[in-house]
Amino acid sequence: MGSMRVVLPAALVAAAVLTGASNAAELNLPRVSQKAQVMQTVGLTDVTIDYSRPGVKGRTIWGELVPYDAVWRTGANEATTITFSTDVKVNGQALPAGTYSLHTIPTTGDWTVIFNKQADQWGSYAYDESADALRIKVKPETHAFTEWMQFSFPEVAVDKATIALDWENIRVPFQIEMATVDHALANARAAMSSLAADDHQTAYRAAAFAFQNNVALDEAAQWIDKSISIQETWLNLRLKADMMEAQGKTSEAISFAQRAIEKGKENAPADEIAKIEKKVAEWKSKM
Fold first, then answer.
1. What is the C-alpha to C-alpha distance for residues 131 and 120, in angstroms, rounded to an integer?
2. Is 187 left (phi over 0), alpha (psi -120 to 50) or beta?
3. Which pLDDT belongs to residue 158?
4. Contact 83, 68 (CB under 8 A)
5. Per residue in 158-175, pLDDT tens?
6. pLDDT on residue 4
7. What residues in the chain have per-residue pLDDT under 70?
8. In this structure, are residues 106 and 72 in contact, taking their beta carbons and an 8 Å threshold?
9. In what order do the strands lie in the sheet with 141-156?
10. Domains of the chain
11. How many helices (H) and strands (E) does the chain have?
């Protein structure tokens, strides 16, 4: 039978040669494209990107150094990886929590961004499409010149973020979303189910989160009442006042706000007390 000839990348050949040289001295040298990592917490989700940063170095990147219409490792050396600590949506499509190798297919039009379940691989040489977890289409944008390829999070909110790949004069952005409010609400319910008898702070924080995000308002009302019943503070009384006003119960709102002012005279910052007093004046003017 004839034998199949396998052509290995130069870097792999060099690694194999060095591995076989058992008597070679250990030599630690810097990589041409150095490793980098960027991590961003989005709400309750940690997003980590590990990659190597190639430089432009006066070369033509798109269509030459990085061919069009071919799978690219999206960096240098090992394939770029991206890790999500919770389930997310990428450009509206579901992607489970985990670590993925991040490949792209650059074109003269829209790019394909690939999340592949085989995270540990060198470049895209062993890329297997059957292991893809998700593919999305992304429209690249013209961007300020970037010598060393980089990933960043130019926009971040509590439940979504933009991830951007910048190199040369191109930016490739995509959006991620996560169910931060659902996760946080589940945490709040769990904490309230095992609330210590003297823990007014956790009950206040759970109520404040639900009220600020306009979710589980009936539970939020119970939680703030629980906080107040354990120990009255200017914070929980102020929150109760805001809840009453949101329900159109202005008289009750004023009553709780005035109690917050009195309690706050003990330890609240003067500017916070002034804010509550201003609210009371505004509420009274509407009656």
1. 12
2. alpha
3. 92
4. no
5. 999 999 999 999 999 999
6. 32
7. 1-23
8. yes
9. 93-95, 88-90, 160-177, 141-156
10. 29-177 (no CATH), 180-286 (1.25.40.10)
11. 7, 10
